[in-house]
Fold this sequence. Notes:
By secondary structure, the chain is α/β, with parallel strands linked by helices.
Amino acid sequence: xxxxxxxxxxxxxxxxxxNLDSIRYIGNRSTGRxxxxxxxxxxxxxxxxxxxxxxxxxxxxxxxxxxxxxxKLTLIxxxxxxxxxxxxxxxxxxxxxxxxxxxxAVLDFIPEKVADGxxxxxxxxWSIKLIKFPKVIKLIRKxxxxxxxxxxxxxxxxxxxxxxxxxxxxxTESDADYVLANDLHGIKNDMxxxxxxxxxxxxxxxxxxxxEIASGLIDLITKRLHNNCNCNCN
Length: 234
């Protein structure tokens, strides 16, 4: 049953990079596999999906699906944080999305300056100053104020209480509807332990794999959109 037919979902996935000089860069560790599973689940539920993905990350494998799904998936490749901002502020800003799932691992800190050319390898040291990059999820909320917004929060060595606290913080800062909080030590291959928190600090789901996250998230989004439609139609 195509429960999300007529809905348009934006998914960001994978890593971003920032240049240090003309040759070197810094980046985040992200495969984009979870974003791909969410995208496929959304597609098979009838949604149109636009996926912004970081260079080097996976893209959805829809070779096993019927040809009609090709037309419902739009892929946009980016590399740097600035590329991502440009896509959000310019290329996609006029598109109306019902849901935005911001799963991309965006660099929180970027080089203050990018060196011209190649920094000589003969140098004995190279000092680089990193500065804070604005939270992209806040821009997403500004551009798509009425979309159902799901943010992601990755931590290291946090208890469930600690993850809940971090999720609550992001929910408050970004005005997201949900945050999926996960810990690096709970992620290995397809294993992916996570909890989904709503804006009322309630845990709406516990997950153990990427498949569980994708199914649980799309099921929740479907119910939420249908409930909103019923309320608006009455």
